[in-house]
Design goal:
With 239 residues, this protein is mostly helical. The protein has one domain. The chain contains 13 helices and no strands. The protein is globular and about 60 Å long.
Length: 239
């Protein structure tokens, strides 16, 4: 598993594309947070990173599919998956290695954003909600972990990396905001709206972002991750 993980990391960072994806993520989040009107902290008027945690899922919705789209698609296209399958590795080890590598890349992209916390703290005359920010980062990590599992799964269904990117971005979008939008339909008001909204990632991400670590939210994210990794394994077994 670790050999697969190391190979994926070397492959990602051996080209300019890998660094470019991380730079674009940091650049976009920085522009929204400090430059663009209506979203920057100076217009917001409060020493808070709420704007960043509201916008980060939408940026990750494009970044993570870009990171994961080649995981299996390129292996299938080049024919190297057949060689990989002959190694003394189980399907779970192959999937876990690729998943762990992609998740490490996303974490590497998120680490520099901790500088935003120190920036907010230096600009604020009072204190900042450290507990809330920590909870929001935990929520962002689990969100990224779920998106990564979805991206790995979508990559296992195609030989085309672009198709893998588009399909994973679509599935992430539906699971993140689709259920919230569906719960807003008037015919679902009065009970069903709350149940439908709970099925979406956005509901549980917002719950963690408030700083309240609820085991129900953690179980939900772990279930999403395991579900899509299980689907990936079933897909590889059919090859």
């Amino acid at each position: 598993m670790l050999a697969i993980c190391n190979k994926e990391l070397r492959q990602f960072f051996s080209s300019l594309t890998g660094y470019l994806a991380i730079i674009i993520f940091l650049l976009l989040s920085g522009l929204f947070l400090f430059v663009f009107p209506d979203t920057n902290l100076f217009d917001y008027g409060y020493a808070s990173l709420d704007t960043f945690f509201d916008l980060a899922p939408w940026i990750l919705l494009l970044l993570i599919p870009a990171v994961t789209m080649r995981s299996f698609a390129d292996e299938f296209k080049s024919g190297t998956y057949e060689i990989l399958a002959t190694r003394p590795l189980s399907k779970w080890q192959i999937i876990a290695g690729k998943y762990l590598a992609s998740l490490i890349i996303i974490v590497v992209a998120l680490i520099p954003t901790i500088l935003y916390v120190f920036t907010i703290k230096s600009l604020s005359t009072g204190g900042i909600d450290t507990g809330g920010i920590l909870g929001a980062y935990i929520g962002l990590f689990f969100l990224a972990a779920a998106f990564t599992a979805i991206g790995i799964c979508c990559s296992s269904f195609t030989h085309n990396a672009v198709v893998a990117f588009l399909s994973s971005a679509f599935v992430c979008f539906i699971l993140y905001s689709g259920f919230t939008a569906l719960s807003g339909i008037p015919s679902f008001q009065g009970g069903w709206d709350y149940i439908i909204e709970m099925m979406g990632i956005n509901f549980h991400y917002r719950s963690l972002s408030r700083g309240a670590i609820d085991t129900r939210d953690l179980i939900y994210f772990l279930s999403i991750i395991l579900l899509f990794l299980f689907i990936t394994r079933k897909r590889l077994l059919t090859r």
